Amino acid sequence: MLSSVIGSIGTAINIIATILCMRCPGMTLGKMPLLVWLNLVMAGLVILAVSPLSAAQIMLLIDRYLGGHFFDTQAGGSAVIWMHFFWIFGHPEVYVLVLPAFAFASEIIPVFSRKAIFGYPVMVLATIAIGFIGMSVWAHHMFTVGMSAGANTFFVLSTMAIAVPTGIKIFNWVATMWGGKLRFEAPMLFCVAFLFQFLVAGLTGVTLAVAPLDWQLGNSYYVVAHFHYVIVGGILFTIFAAFYYWFPKAIGKRYNEALARLHFWLFFIGFHLTFDFMHVPGLLGMPRRIYTYEPGRGWDIWNLLVTVGVVFQAAGILIFAGNLIWSYLRGKAAGNDPWDAWTLEWSTSSPPPVYNYAAIPVVRSRRPLWDLKHPEDPDWRYE
Amino acid sequence: MSANTFAISELPASRPFTLRLHEWVTTVDHKRLGVLYILFALVFLIVGGIEATIMRLQLVRPHNDLVSPEVFNRMFTMHGTTMIFFVAMPLVFGFANYLVPLMIGARDMAFPRLNAFSFWMSALGGLFLYFSFLGGNGLYGAGSTPDAGWFAYAPLTAKTFSVVASSEY
């Protein structure tokens, strides 16, 4: 585990240095694609959040092998310290994962709506706000530990506050789609499902942020349902969208659209069967991490439905894998710019050569390829 | 798309498999490392998915006895750890690696060698974790696979309650 943690920190430093030092001429911070902004904040969070985890892992090793007592309550240590260390990593980690998901949505939704992203500066500010607030919400995982009323209040409020920048982002994506010429191909389908599912996941998150309700629901299946809604419904859906969106660029071939849509619908149905119905046994009191349960508590039918959903999800994943392999071997040539997109990567060949660009591009706006394709009406006139 | 836009065509197109493998293992190219991250994540996505499926099959009806309680504990621990550290993180880094230099018009990351080092450290972590299936009794009884949940809360991972080497993985 320590080894992978070192790898994460190295990559994060690398991403930050790349973004700050290696932008092409003309690309000021305010002209970077949103994906780059979101990855910059993500990398910052990785450094801040993963370092405490590696510290805690080293402390645990000292406890176990060198006779330390960091976490040993009988020798004056504190087990709660581990919880703080873990969650000061654990919660920002959620934002580390969700910011790239936002990044994919912020690139894909405009291209498939044929409109520039709505409210670029606000999106950047909301991202930075999520980064800051995300570092101060960790103890909402620990309401059941019994912290002071003051600490509880702080973490309830900070957790609810993070819903504000997230809400701004959802409004901006919807505003981008509003009045656009929507193309519902596989990447867009996954992004639209993401918008709705992430909204629901955020709402159950706010219910859990209410400390007294959390005392009731903590460690129940409701929590499991909530975070899988975030991670699968929010993050995995946009990752599938990103796979389909950039597959033609990375491989140089088109994927099979019909199979991709079948994957979407199977996975969508499976996701909702599993994780919608997982909330119910949680509300009925089923704890997480139990290996079996008594019949007659009203949990049986819900658990059956949850497991049936797994079958659909597994079928979806198999079709996804099959589609990638088949398209890699037999797909039709994609061309350099199959989506008529606006960011720089679509200006080079598919797949890009080792050196990416024969001549380093010069940009004047947030949508350099739009300027190239429409010299009569370039973006930089308006920005 | 015509073949002459492929830059790699400077090398002979049909190279022996070992040479191509050597190129991939020693690469410092951000695009290849991005693809490696993503493939690594997809393999573990299948593994973590199988662990989730085993848990759900166990819970499909009350008093099911597909797996023992010990194995169930290891399944949810490994599912959580795998999905966060060896699926989600590599996917995020893989896409960031591939796309960020392309989108900002750069030729590679700022530190290409650090990039390769980071990927192989992550891969090593994944192999270490799954190495635990082989030690001791592995999955069964007081085996060596982690079983304390992915948060690895302290009293459960302290020496008193976890006698074998499970948490170090």
Quick overview:
The complex is a heterodimer of chains A (383) and B (169). By secondary structure, chain A is an all-alpha fold. Helices cover 67% and strands 0% of the residues of chain A.
Structural overview:
The complex is a heterodimer of chains A (383) and B (169). With 383 residues, chain A is mostly helical. Among the domains of chain A are: 1-183, no CATH class; 359-383, no CATH class. In chain A, 67% of the residues lie in helices and 0% in strands. In chain A, helix 3 crosses helix 9 (221-251), helix 6 (163-177) packs antiparallel against helix 7 (186-209) and helix 10 (257-283) runs antiparallel to helix 11 (300-330). Mean pLDDT of chain B is 75; it is low at 1-9 and 158-169. Chain B has one domain (17-168). Chain B is mainly alpha-helical and 169 residues long. Chains A and B meet through helix 1, helix 2, helix 3, helix 9 and helix 11 of A and helix 2, helix 3, helix 4 and helix 5 of B.
Oligomer: heterodimer
Biggest chain pair contact, residues each? A-B, 92 and 82 residues
| Order of helical and strand elements of chain B | HHHHH
Which consecutive residue ranges of chain A, at least 5 long each, have pLDDT under 50? none
Helix/sheet category of chain A: mainly alpha
Count the strands of chain B? 0
Number of strands of chain A: 0
Write the element-wise H/E pattern of chain A from the N-terminal end onward: HHHHHHHHHHHH
Q: Distance N terminus to C terminus of chain A?
A: 46 Å
Low-confidence parts of chain B lasting 5 or more residues at pLDDT below 50?
1-9, 158-169
Mean pLDDT of chain B equals: 75
Beta-strand content bin of chain A: under 5%
Q: Output the number of helix runs of chain A.
A: 12
State the distance separating the first and last CA atoms of chain B.
47 Å
**What count of structural domains of chain B?**
1
| Rg of chain A, nearest Å | 23 Å
